[in-house]
Each structure stands twice: as structure tokens, then as C-alpha cells.
Specification:
This protein is mostly helical and 52 residues long. It has one helix at 21-36.
């Protein structure tokens, strides 16, 4: 099993504050899969900040 180390910078902006966190996580996985060609494993400590 290979381990990929490095930094991933994410800039997220959401139009709706009431958007459910699970949907945001699914969208984030989908976007990274397209961008990197693989799905990233998101750990339970990952927190999404809502930017106004």
C-alpha cells in the first residue's frame, strides 16, 4: 500500500448555510476523484468550515 504525503489546499464557498454536511462531504469526494483520478479517504476528524 502506497502512502501519498503532501498538502491539499481546499477553498470552499457555499451559497446556502443550511447545506447538510454529509452532502458537502460527498461533493468533496466526487470533486477530488475527478481532480486526482482517485478517491481520497476522509477521516472523521475532518471539519468543513462554511465561508460567508
Amino acid at each position: 500500500m502506497k502512502t501519498l504525503e503532501g498538502w491539499i489546499s481546499l477553498h470552499l464557498k457555499f451559497k446556502f448555510r443550511e447545506t447538510h454536511e454529509d452532502k458537502l462531504t460527498r461533493d468533496l469526494i466526487f470533486d477530488t476523484e475527478i481532480e486526482l483520478g482517485r478517491t481520497l479517504l476522509l477521516h472523521s476528524y475532518l471539519k468543513l468550515r462554511y465561508l460567508s
